[in-house]
Amino acid sequence: MAFKKFTPRKKYCRFCASREILLDYKNVEMLKDFITDRGKIIARRITGNCAKHQRVLTTEIKKARQMALLYYTVTHSADVKKKTT
Ligand SMILES: [Zn+2]
Question: In sequence order, what are the residues at sequence separation of 6 or more whose Cβ sits closer than 8 angstroms to the Cβ of residue 8?
Fold first, then answer.
């Protein structure tokens, strides 16, 4: 065949794969991987997380938002504020 057959990359739950990753609201850098640039939580079918970990993750992201570690929308983001002021 002249063209390569498309094979989608196997998705896996990174929290199941590695016990080292701390699923916690204080681990903001990790949580940022699971939100869009607009601050939305990315769906499980895209990230490949398992149901159990996605459930924990969403509550941790919501906790982080409450603690002002993450933003609810981009207008609350520190990066946007820097540009406007
Ligand atoms: Zn998992």
Answer: none
Q: Residue 21 falls within a domain, yes or no?
A: yes
> d(Cα 62, Cα 64) in Å, to the nearest integer?
5
What's the pLDDT tens digit per position in 42-63? 999 999 999 999 999 999 999 9
| Domain carrying residue 61 | 14-84
Of the candidates 45, 42, 49, the one whose C-alpha atom is nearest the C-alpha of residue 13 is: 49
CATH number of domain containing 30? 4.10.640.10
What distance in angstroms lies between residue 41's CA and the mean position of ligand 1's atoms?
Answer: 16
Q: How far is the CA of 42 from the centre of ligand 1 (A)?
A: 15
